Amino acid sequence: MVSQTATTARSGRKGGDRKSKSARAGVLFSVPRFHRYIKKSTPKSRVTMAAAVYTAAVIEYLTAEVLELSGNAAKDHKKQRINARHVFLAVSIDEELKKLLHGVTIPQGGVLPHINSFLFKTKSGSDDHSQSAHKSDASRSNTASVPRAPSALTTKSASTGAAGGKTSSSVATTKKSASLSGGNTGSSA
Length: 189
Known about the structure:
This protein is mainly α and 189 residues long. α3 crosses α4 and α4 packs across α5.
């Protein structure tokens, strides 16, 4: 009992257990380190220890949240270790973290898995996706077999066609029919 009330010779404080600032604040992250970082980033202003405690608590909470979600993602993939891919998936699933870390690139994180529904094969021909696929294939086959004129000739024929009394819609119709039939009617008009 005498040793607890007596002061030590070199520190001038009363005896007892030493507690770090982090332990007194009840956080795991280093409060003096955050205090030093904040002081270094804003050298002209004073920084209280409460600001460092608050920053350490917020960073600890965010870290615990990301770690928990990443652990769940690793467990879903039947892995015991969390890697960058699991962190990326965890952040992209949670809306608030996704908004917070919007512009952040996680190295080795990969991309979100997404397959466009247009790429899935369908069994029935009545599906809207299959009909649009047939239309796009037909339009590709027509344009692929017809040789295209250079752009300078196309603009020249369009300008001469307009001077000859044709409207722009008739020029477009003439070009379309020429491309479908395979003939070249642009210079004969």
